[in-house]
Amino acid sequence: MILETIANNYLWFLVAILVINMYQRKHVPRSNNKRIATLIIASLAMLWQVFIVIIITRGWPHYLAVPALALTVAIAYPFRKRILLFRNTCAQCGVKLNFTQIVNFDDNLCDECYAKEHPETISDEKEAIEPEETIVTPSQYTDVQQIDWDEWEPTEVAVLTYLFVDDQVLLIHKKTGLGKGLINAPGGHIEEGETADEAAMREITEETGLSVPSVTYKGRLDFQFTDGLKMRGYIFFAGEYEGELIETDEALPFWCKVDELPYDKMWEDDVLWLPPAIKGMRVNGCFIFDGEKMLSHQIETIDDTEEE
């Protein structure tokens, strides 16, 4: 009798899991791992349902549902790290998480801790100003020590996305805009209503034809130009992609060996912060430029493994 009740109502359990999975799609890429977890859970639930149906239809003793459940758990064991992602308290401060944070967010962080870990996602009205609407005035600063960077605000906010595959990195010959003629990573401005990581994934597709499923935040770079432009750039790394490489109106993409990066053809600051970022550090930098000439810089490196 118990097995019949389970079999008759099991469909609703599966529907609930799949509804949750659809809900998680709204929070991609932050929910990628938990989306996979719910699909695995749904598959395992269907497997046990199959066992139950077989037991009922063949008239076998109902106690066989117990070893069937044990077998299902045994099959699930190799996937335990992919399944056991859900927790109801913040992984850093221990505060109780809400339903959305528990079900969707892979990092299991409350909003406050997420903002601290991912400053690139913090947006305000100043960052939403379109470049053509920005009014800039010439700057007399020639040394980073002359600027209070805690109070400094950018007039433009952009992203750069470095895609690493094996021993190669994807770069572009920039054909338009700031830095035209230089070699750089795919990137561009953050659009209104868009987070920095969303912009990073969008820009690499628009400029190279490749799409990346996720990106990792690697740091923030602030640039004060003597002509008055104040640019903030968020740096992201990616490690896998789909699609075919194509030339676009904005960029000519190409693969380059990591140990052969053409720093002499890139922005002058790249050689200062990119090597430690490639080695696993997170970087925060402040720079003053006169056109494409770097006048002054200050760089901080953060070891994420030590923070953990």
Could you please describe the fold and organization of this structure?
The protein has two domains: 2-85; 122-307, Nucleoside Triphosphate Pyrophosphohydrolase, CATH 3.90.79.10. Helices cover 34% and strands 22% of the residues. It has helices spanning 2-24, 32-57, 65-76, 80-83, 99-104, 111-117, 196-208, 270-278, 304-307; strands at residues 156-165, 168-174, 183-184, 187-189, 216-225, 230-238, 251-257, 281-290, 293-303. Strands 1, 2, 3, 4, 5, 6, 7, 8 and 9 form a nine-stranded mixed beta sheet that branches. A hairpin with a 2-residue loop joins strand 1 and strand 2. Helix 1 packs antiparallel against helix 2 and helix 2 (32-57) runs antiparallel to helix 3. It is elongated. The N and C termini lie far apart (50 Å).
Instruction: Please give the count of helices.
Output: 9
End-to-end Cα distance: 50 Å
Which sequence of SSEs, written as H and E, runs from N to C? HHHHHHEEEEHEEEHEEH
Low-pLDDT sequence parts: 123-134
What is the CATH topology of the largest domain? Nucleoside Triphosphate Pyrophosphohydrolase
Average pLDDT, rounded to a whole number, is 86
Number-wise, the strands total 9
Helix-residue proportion: 25-40%
* CATH class category of the largest domain: Alpha Beta
The whole-angstrom Rg is 25 Å
Largest sheet: 9 strands, mixed
Using the alpha-carbon principal axes, give the shape: elongated
